[in-house]
Structures are given as structure tokens and as C-alpha cells.
Amino acid sequence: MNQKVKNKLLYKQEQLPIFQNRMYDTEREAKSCPKGDIELVENQITGLVYNAAFRPELMAYDAHYQNEQALSPLFRQHLESVSGIVDRCMGRSTLVEVGCGKGFFLELLQGKGFDITGFDPTYEGNNSRVMRHYFEPGVGIKANGLVLRHVLEHVQNPYDFLLQLKLANGGSGRIYIEVPCFDWICERKAWFDVFYEHVNYFRISDFYRMFGKVVESGRLFGDQYLYAVAELATLREPELDIDDTVMFPQNFAGSLIEPDLAEPVQSAIWGGASKGVIFALLKDRVAQPVRTVIDINPAKQGKYLPSTGLLVQSPADALSNLPKGSTIYVMNSNYLEEIKEMSGNAYRYVGIDHE
User: Fold this and answer.
1) What is the CATH number of domain 258-351?
2) What pairs with residue 160 in β-bridges?
């Protein structure tokens, strides 16, 4: 069958950076970063939503990739909530975190007495419980539960990937899956939350179609994330449910242009991560550029954002040159009160993801 017949087109965007969390040492290098197109579709066989223009061969993660959020107290609270779900649904013995990144969540669980092993080929730390390779058949570990946080949205064929995890774990056990919530993206018309790096966009109902038994599911982190805990043995190929197709909003990127906003002398973005990269780029394309980027992550400060080449500054450096009353675009409203407090409540704050 022709691929175009299988897919319903939802949204297109051209030439986004392939890594929105890849930081660059120079403005020139940042502006010339690798780019790719977005062609968001709903597959009419599986019902899954993904970027049909995605090219996996472009993706090569390295030490320049910075997506650590745990510096924020609010995000640490989120991870505490997740640890409670893992404890409640899977227990504390013989767990595996697949794609554990820099190991922050794994070590949080270890500190609480969880018996957990991590797998991530890009891991850079010295924790002996982290294996620097993939969790795949032959690793010799059968876990009571697998933890899969913010990995599945990056994998081109999610069902095939989950099948490999099931086989690697002997066909049984439970899995905790956490991903961005596509329903939230649609509800908020969050055009700044569609990234090349995220090939998949999930709804909770997707996991009920992929698993025969979902133990628990819900939304987290101000509804921006969703989670599902499922029995690996019940994994199955998803099929489109014609009564539950994606309700993609009309005029999805309508808030991109702000015709009634009198631009202040200066404005800033607070949050030099994924949302900030896309927000800055698309605002620049509609001739409403933002020149200042603030982030609390020291690993981002002094580096440049992909595509726009904007310099990421610490709050102290950026605010010293930002006139009081200027607009600060807050990339994630979960952090709005934190940001107001850090900046002395001296600016006009716009939470870009507010309804």
C-alpha cells in the first residue's frame, strides 16, 4: 500500500535542528547545525503519531547533548513522584532503567534502597551499576520491572523496540513508560513542543492498544507527561481505533505571531532547552526575534543554541543587562514561580504554554 494512503498528515515544519539539546561552542557552528523536516502523521493502520520525514541515520548522541532537568527543585519533585509509582507498581528489587542518561534518576532510586541497574551507551559517570551498552537479548539480567523514561519518543519503531525489551527480559515483568503527552500538546496548541528529535508523539490510549494489560496510567508534571505501567507479556501490535483518532487542532501554530503585542525594548527566553530552541527559531522566522536566552544549567551557559546561534546566559549575567519591565517568555509554566522569585518579580512574564 502506498505510504501516503496509510498516513494522515497533521502538521509540517521545515528545517528544525535535529538535536534541540545539542549545545555549540560558537555562534557560527550553532547556526550551521544539522537540520531536518517535520511531517507529523497519524498512521491509519496502527493509530500511532510520528514524524514520517525522520531520518535516524542523522542521530548521533554525544557529550555535547545536554538535557539534564534535575537542577530544578520542581523537577526533582516530579522524579520523587515517579519513584513512588515505580515502588507501588514494580517494587524495589531487580529493576532496570533503560536509557538512564546521566544516571540522576537511577541514583535517586539507589539512595532510596532500590536494587536497580542502568543501561545507556552514552553514560559518562562512574556508577558501577550502569552498563555502557544497550539492554538487549543476552545481557543476562531478568528484571521484575523496566523503567523507560523519555526514551520511547526518540525510537523510530516503538513497537519493535518494546518487543526487543520484552525479549531481553525473558518475556515477562512490568514496564514503566514515561513520555511527553501528545494530548497536552494538542490541547495547548504547543507548537514549541514538536521536535525533530522526538519521532513519536503518544497518547495514553496508545498504550492500551499496545498492551493487553495496563496496570496504571495517568499524567504527570502539570499534565505535560504521561505514564503507563504495563505487563510486558501482554505487548501486542497496536491497531487504529476509528473511535479514538487524533483530534489535531486547527490553526495549531496560530499563537506564533503576536500582532497585538507591542514588543518591549528587550525580551528574553527563560529556558534554553527544547522548547526554547524551537520558540526562538520560529519567532525569528516571523520577524519577532528574541535576543536573550537564560538557563540555570551551567553546562548550557556560555554555549549557543542550535539554528539561531543565541548565546545562553546565567540568570545573573542576563538579568544585569535586561531592563526591568522587559518581557520574559517562560518556556515551561511549571517553573513560573521559581523564575519570578529568581528574577525579583521585576519583569513581564509570559508562560508560553498557558491556556
Assistant:
1) 3.40.50.720
2) none
What's the pTM? 0.87
Phi, psi for residue 213 in degrees, rounded to 5: -135, 110
Question: Could you tell me the residue ranges of all domains in the chain?
Answer: 1-256, 258-351
Residue 1 has pLDDT above 80, yes or no: no
The number of beta carbons lying within 10 Å of the beta carbon of residue 139 is: 15
Q: Which class does domain 1-256 fall in?
A: alpha beta
Instruction: Report phi then psi at 210, rounded to 5.
Output: -90, -20
Nearest to 206 by CA among 189, 233, 181: 181
The count of residues in the chain is 355
Q: How many angstroms separate the CA atoms of 175 and 342, rounded? A: 38
- What's the pLDDT tens digit per position in 45-56? 999 999 999 998
| Residue 340, CA atoms < 13 Å, CB-side half-sphere | 10
